[in-house]
Amino acid sequence: MTDCLLIMTSLPDQDTARSLAHKLLEEKLAACINVMPPMTSIYQWKGEVCEDSEYLLLIKTRQACYAQVETLIRAHHPYQLPEIIATGISHGLPDYLGWIEESTQE
């Protein structure tokens, strides 16, 4: 297992997704963020099945940055209950994983 982490969050539109990505990068909380094209999310919310178009962010960072990433996402996310899911990166190209570690704040 490495110190690297992949965090996912979904947003309602491309402008909001890009804005959040830039904020995370400016704070050196992520090395790279992919803004995925629109996807359809189908979910339960307050007793109803809902369906919306969303943009997924794939945030590459380090475990030590997780709390700050979560705080920044919560502060700038338009949803009452944003999706914030993290998973450890167990394997990857060593040079790429090293770049993630070098590119994020201590």
From TrEMBL:
Lineage top rank: taxon: Bacteria
Pfam families for this protein: CutA1
GO BP, sorted A to Z: response to metal ion
InterPro entries (alphabetical): Ion_tolerance_CutA, N-reg_PII-like_a/b, N-reg_PII/ATP_PRibTrfase_C
SUPFAM superfamilies: GlnB-like
GO MF annotation: an example: copper ion binding
Family per similarity comment: Belongs to the CutA family.
Protein name per the record: CutA1 divalent ion tolerance protein
